[in-house]
Specification:
Length: 466
């Protein structure tokens, strides 16, 4: 059985069920690279503080890099549940290499500030990765918008056909969501960019550690300002999981539309074969599994977020072992949101709307009723009255089994003498779309502007940060 670092005070060994129950190595071994980076920075800080000689630092650095190599090579390293977590595994292996010097590395440090540092390093990297993936999704949406500037489809409210819109406008609506997500992750990344080491167990340490130096060594922008908060804080997990949940909600809405649009009922798009699956029993089936799975995985990410919030609720200061339970949901949350963004970035470029079906749907169901009312209102009829006349036109058309433009001029004039023959051109799909030229509207000119602005913004981010 491995020796425990705390055994000086204990008279009997840990119960084996307790050992298995409290071990986290099967989960936190993923943090080995961050743990070793943290140890190298700490060793350098100890050297600066006069705790480790230059010689000692050199041999610790060399040994730490050998431990890293052994772990990466896989078969050389032994994982032992009795050693609890990644911090003790690294330290124990170090002891095998450099003997008692390994013990000196833990001067002025606790696993509490160690794990807080490891986890922030890990999540900073993940936030950066999520931001890169969000940019790919946004780029794909911009390409889709550019390819669908000429595609007019029904815009919906209450999932009832409402008014015609450009499919490009619809895609750009999703761009906006993922733009906000990018900003949210960038802000979350900025706030988590603080270094806990030097806080030790909770109160700071008696050794003169230059924390600003450690922070620079590890690529952190700042140090955590309060040692108790530094070891107890997991806000960065809550923020990441919240941002991830919102991004997943956005993905789930997009996926829901892909599922609907690819159904026979809508028929607005055909899924690329490479991103659909068939049925083992129904030969005609082509199922939108990717969109369905992303929609389904949203629940997982929200579950992880809920687990993390619940973990932190009412937890007294400072470190509590409960916090060890942050890893599994956090890893799953980051892995899932990354996988979903990556697969969507890959699938989106292959989507193509069926322009005929879309336009056909936009022509049916009186999506021009608002425009007929606007037409009359523009001629001086108060909008409330114009709305009433247009409503009667819809009722008449329904009775005759035609659309509004299927009514004759005489029939329309029977409802209002303000109607002239220009009404038919006024109610064409293109005219209806292009009249909605308010800032942020669906008019082709506005959508082109929005697309150009989004392209410029995405390109600028590529150079800097969101
Ligand atoms: N495995 C622990 C965790 O993930 C590391 C810190 C343990 N600290 C302690 N005092 N037991 O939170």
């Amino acid at each position: 059985m491995a020796k425990k670092p705390w055994e000086g005070r204990f008279s009997e060994p840990t119960d084996e069920m307790v050992e298995a129950f409290s071990s986290s190595i099967h989960v936190d071994r993923r943090l080995y690279a961050q743990d070793i980076a943290g140890s190298v920075a700490h060793a350098r800080t100890l050297n600066k503080a006069g705790v480790l000689s230059d010689e000692e630092l050199k041999s610790l650095e060399a040994a730490l890099s050998r431990v890293k190599k052994e772990i990466e090579e896989g078969n050389k390293f032994t994982w032992d549940p009795a050693l609890e977590d990644i911090h003790m595994h690294v330290e124990e292996r170090l002891r095998g290499m450099v003997g008692d010097l390994a013990g000196k590395l833990h001067t002025g440090r606790s696993r509490n500030d160690q794990v807080a540092t490891d986890f922030r390093l890990y999540l900073k990297q993940e936030a950066g990765e999520v931001i890169r993936l969000l940019r790919r999704v946004r780029g794909a949406l911009l390409d889709l918008a550019a390819a669908h500037m000429d595609c007019i489809m029904p815009g919906y409210t209450h999932l009832q056909r409402a008014q015609p819109v450009l499919a490009a406008h619809h895609f750009l609506a999703y761009y906006e969501m993922f733009f906000r997500d990018t900003r949210r992750f960038a802000q979350c990344l900025d706030r988590m960019d603080e270094m806990p080491l030097g806080s030790a167990a909770l109160a700071g340490t008696t050794f003169a550690l230059d924390r600003e130096y450690t922070a620079r060594e590890l690529g952190f922008s700042r140090v955590c300002r309060n040692s108790m908060d530094a070891v107890a804080d997991r806000d960065f997990c809550l923020e990441f999981a919240s941002a991830a949940s919102i991004a997943m909600i956005h993905l789930s809405r997009l996926c829901e539309e892909i599922v609907l649009w690819s159904s026979q009922e809508f028929g607005f798009l055909t899924l690329p074969d490479a991103f659909a699956t068939g049925s083992s029993i129904m030969p005609q089936k082509k199922n939108p599994d990717v969109a369905e799975l992303v929609r389904g995985k949203t629940g997982r990410v929200l579950g992880a977020m809920t687990a993390l919030f619940t973990l932190l609720k009412s937890l007294p200061l400072a470190y509590n072992r409960d916090l060890q339970e942050d890893k599994e949901p956090m890893f799953d949350c980051a892995d899932t949101v990354k996988a979903c963004l990556a697969v969507m970035a890959r699938m989106l470029p292959h989507l193509a709307m069926d322009r005929e079906r879309c336009a056909d749907a936009a022509r049916k169901g009186f999506l021009d009723a608002t425009d007929l009312a606007d037409y009359l209102a523009a001629k001086g009829l108060p909008f409330r009255d114009a709305h009433h006349v247009a409503g009667r036109a819809v009722a008449l058309a329904q009775e005759k089994g035609v659309e509004l433009t299927g009514l004759s001029l005489a029939e329309l004039q029977g409802l209002s003498d303000l109607v002239e023959k220009d009404v038919f051109g006024f109610l064409s799909l293109e005219a209806m779309v292009n009249r909605r030229a308010t800032l942020g509207g669906t008019a082709t000119g506005r959508v082109k502007e929005a697309l150009a602005q989004a392209r410029a913004e995405l390109a600028a981010e590529g150079e800097g940060r969101a």
